[in-house]
Amino acid sequence: MLGFLNYPSWIRPEIIPGFPVRWYGLMYIVAFVIAYLLFRYQIKERRLQVNEDDVVNLFFWGIIGLLIGGRLFGTLVYDPTGRYLSHPWLIFWPFDETGRFVGLAGMSYHGGLLGGVVAIVLFCRARKIDVLDWGDMLVASVPLGYTFGRLGNFINGELWGRVTTLPWGMYFPGAEPLSNKLSWVREVAAKAGIPAGAPGSLINLPRHPSQLYEALFEGLVLWLVIWLVFRKRKPFKGFVIAVYVIGYGVIRFIVEYFREPDQGIGFPIHFQRLVERAHPAMPLDFSTGQILSFLMIVAGIVFLIVRLRRLSPKPDAKPASRKTRRGA
Description:
Blueprint: E1 5-6, H1 23-45, H2 52-77, H3 83-86, H4 109-126, H5 131-139, H6 142-156, E2 170-171, E3 178-179, H7 183-192, E4 202-203, H8 210-230, H9 239-255, E5 269-270, E6 285-286, H10 288-311
Parallel strand pairs: 1-2
Antiparallel strand pairs: 3-4, 5-6
Helix pairs in contact: 1-6, 2-4, 5-9, 6-8, 8-9, 9-10
């Protein structure tokens, strides 16, 4: 009996075979629509008098910033080949060398977050909108939509996790095979019921379905915590923003232990003997995603401290001393 699950063979990246429309792109649209509807719900719930054009434009420019930032990080930070640095016009070019439409595969969440924040802050300042108040409503809306983005990664059969012997480990056909010369590879293959093959051959082993972990925890769970616990109980403007940034950073940092680091980058910070990226146990080796998530956590904590200090009551000023004039 096999000790793993097979990636569903009926799943295809294209919605309609032969047409350049993919489920991944559709999932992005679903994510944006959900975030917009939840944002509008909060406006109605609070009976805020806002200009509908401002809401639409906020999302328009936020999405533009997100796509630009996500694409720039995805091609410049996560691409070790230097292809996009030497050919920058390819960053937003949606065709391959043969002229076939392939879309803009390769987006970075952290880059998208940074680009979206910059665009939204600039827009709110230009329109004289309270960026902290609207930002709180926005981050209470975003995580649920993010769930669908990760489901898009799963449908694409990409961003799989590290090797695992857990019963829900999944065999991804596109995952990088590993050499059976390695003892731990042979051990995992034996536990999963996979033939080791001839000496020196390559084996594709079950992986954590890390896309689904991220969809569940970075999306659904984080959204439920913010929506049900903090959304109506925030002590000051900007508090929900801090909760989201810190919460996402912590969850993503942990999930990265189950996700295989990007090829060619591996572990920029490591305190253990470097082994294959797919190795299941390297707690002291940190991926690029973990580094960026740690910076998110720090930024969220610093933001929280700054807001608390600005809102804390200032001590009363000491009365000025009076000098007594003697003689006249």
